[in-house]
Amino acid sequence: MPLREQTLGIGDLARLTGVPVRTVRFYCDEGIVGSVRSAGGHRRFDRAAVEQLRLVRRLRGLGLGLPSIRRVLAGERSLAEAVAAERAALDVRFADLAWRRASLRAVEEAGPADRAARLELLAAVEGGGAAHDALAGFWRRTMVVPVSEAMLTAFVTMAVPEPPTDPTPAQVVAFAELVALAGDRELTSLLLAMARANAELVADEAELLNGISEACALAAPRVRAGEPPRGGPELDRFVAAHAAARGGRDTPRFRGRLLAYVAADRDPRMRAYWRLAAEAGGDPASLGASHLWLTDSLERAVSPGAPEGRAPQAGVAFGRSGTGAPGVPGQAPPMAG
After folding, report:
1. Sign (positive/negative) of CA torsion 315, 321, 323, 327?
2. How confident is the model at residue 137 (pLDDT cuts 50, 70, 90)?
3. Distance from CA of residue 82 to its chain's centroid?
4. Residues 36-84: tens digit of each pLDDT
5. 0.90 cut: is pTM over it?
6. How many Å apart are CA 165 and CA 288, to the nearest integer?
7. Banded pLDDT at 308 (limits 50, 70, 90)
8. CB contact at 8 A, 250 and 240
9. Which backbone phi and psi does 25 adopt, to 5 degrees?
10. What whole-number distance in Å separates Cα of residue 122 and Cα of residue 102?
11. Rounded distance, CA 337 to CA 319, Å?
């Protein structure tokens, strides 16, 4: 049968698919749609090209690029995979736009005297993903004692809030301030020095972390309810975890020394970190906030005249950490049982 009767001309294909002739030529040149040449040198297309070109048109209408479409047509990627990848890319772009919008609003909402400083603060953070990576890197750099990757990942997940997909101006400011804290070299040096000095204090890190996590879980309802720090089963579990991990026991003398130990974790910058982390992540009763409530409760138990009402969301570290980070190993002043 003659080629002309078996195939379609470029004009017929354009008419059947609604794709302009010039675009069909472009797709042919790019290898998206195959064609053959007639004796006269004209492009000819088989019948399958109709559905193929219709698919190309639909995918282009959804914004897919030619490399992705080419892989679908070649059978290297399914239609579902291509669409899912495009949707994921859009999610990233929308998140970036939402971050930029919230940042612009944060600058607009600042008072005239504060606007330049606000702009400088926010300009240092490119987006939510970059902020998250900077904070995760900060905590990973302060790890001195070798820990399992699972423990390290679990801690970073707890310590670094996930950027919201549609942040408020207050949240982007909180993230930017967290990044600024993470860039404080003096603070980083302090945390590393405490880590190296106390790397061998705790015999069983996992036991300590589990005990403190249990104490924080007990304290979380108190924090959510806005109750002031106080003694009780939450504090008893907290002290018992430290005593067991250090080979000591819960006595007034031990509590006094434990208070001195956690005082290193109560650096104002670390309290600020946990306050900002709670605001950025939208969790007022985070693990860090609960731990701070426990350390403030310890202070009141050891020093009954201590003032009430410390901000529970401001946070501090636990475990062997002197970093202000719950559960970071290897960082605290020496303390006997």
Report:
1. negative
2. very high
3. 26
4. 888 778 888 988 899 999 999 999 999 999 999 999 988 899 999 999 9
5. no
6. 23
7. low
8. yes
9. -60, -45
10. 10
11. 15
